[in-house]
Amino acid sequence: MAPLYLDRADPTGDLWKYATKADLYQQLLSYYGQKRSNTAMNSAIQFWSFAHEIGVGDLVVIPEDSDGDLLAVGRVQERYQYHPGNPPSLRHRLSIAWDRIGIDRSAVRPDLRAGLGSLVSVRELVDNNAADRIAHLAKHGTDPGPEEPSTRAELARTLGEAMAAAALDPPKPLEMPVRELLAHWGYQQRSDTAITDVKRDLLQSGLTTVPPFTEGNLERVVKLVGIPVSKPAGEGEDESGDESPITDGTENLVETDSIALRIGNFPFPTKPITT
């Protein structure tokens, strides 16, 4: 077995002490501040999943190098543990048995590779029988491909490309008119359902838009940019959790009303995840 750490700052302490996702979100919101509610929500989703949703036997995929060219696949052997005596970036831990390491990313078919995105977050992979394919990848080092086309395959590909582009240094965010953005979800107008679905998937992918896609006409061009994530202590954050610069003008993905219900309705990964 080998440890897998959630390489972030530690504004939460032991994640087992939070009874609900809403409690965890409120703690992170007090750390980040109201202006960064997207960051707080994105971190809450990832922290909660890492501690409360990932179970023994679940598959994980991680990059072995900074470029993400090599992948490792393993299974969880022991659930989340908190180690307060470690440095902040080494306190949140899972124990993993690695089934296969050194997998060339090119061995993964394009649709699943796009779902991996930039491999910088805890993220669910569910489309195109992803769990079975990653299990096959762990055993044989090859991706057998999807059993049948998925209606969300194109959306997963676009979100994966956007995540990878937003993670570049410097970022090169994807740009598109609002009308085209909505079309990836199968919508032609900004109905309440459309806005809810787009915000949910953007948030879970660690993305938002600038300017907000909910404002202006449908021909307005928006950029898909990354939501800032917490960093290990001493890497660009002060004790209040502020990162500089704070991107203004992004879409607010988090509604202020009925927040506990909204957080509770977010799905979380079971098999597999990436971090």
Keywords summarizing the entry:
9 strands, 275 residues, alpha+beta, single chain, six-stranded mixed sheet
Could you please describe the fold and organization of this structure?
The protein is of the alpha+beta class and 275 residues long. Helix 1 (21-32) packs across helix 2 and helix 3 crosses helix 5. The strands form 2 sheets. It has a 6-stranded mixed beta sheet. It contains 8 helices and 9 strands. It has one domain (2-274).
Summarize the structure.
This protein is of the alpha+beta class. The chain is built from eight helices and nine strands.
| Residue fraction in strands | 15-25%
Total of helices: 8
Helix content: 25-40%
Low-confidence sequence ranges: 232-247, 256-275
Radius of gyration: 18 Å
Kindly report the spatial arrangement of strands forming the biggest sheet: 1-4-3-2-9-5
Overall structural domain count = 1
Q: Determine the mean pLDDT.
A: 82
Distance between the termini: 17 Å
The main β sheet shows up as: 6 strands, mixed
Structural class: alpha+beta
Backbone shape: globular
Order of helices and strands: EHHEEEHEHHEHHEEHE
What is the total tally of β strands?
A: 9
Region (Disordered): 229-250
